[in-house]
Amino acid sequence: MRIGFKITLLFSVIGLLSVSIMGWISYQEGKNAIEKASFERLTSVKELKVKTN
User: Fold this and answer.
1) For residue 53, what is the DSSP state?
2) C-alpha–C-alpha distance, residues 27 and 16, integer Å
3) Nearest alpha-carbon partner for 23 in 15, 35, 13, 34
């Protein structure tokens, strides 16, 4: 293989790997944020029900 092709392939793999890692981290942070918001909403509904009873 030619050196230019090897370098291009290497940089492509590194770029794809970094994008994949950042996508996974963003997905996890988004999932955690949604779970936290849902839990807080459920907690506030629970507290409102306790106050009204």
Assistant:
1) -
2) 16
3) 15
Per-residue pLDDT of the chain (53 residues; tens, 9 = 90+): 899 999 999 999 999 999 999 999 999 999 999 999 999 999 988 888 888 76
Domain that holds residue 39: 1-53
Total number of domains constituting the chain: 1
How many Å apart are CA 12 and CA 6, to the nearest integer? 10
Token code pair at residue 9: 């392939």
**Gyration radius (Cα) of the chain, Å:** 23
48/33 Cα distance (integer angstroms): 23
Residue 22 DSSP SS3 = helix
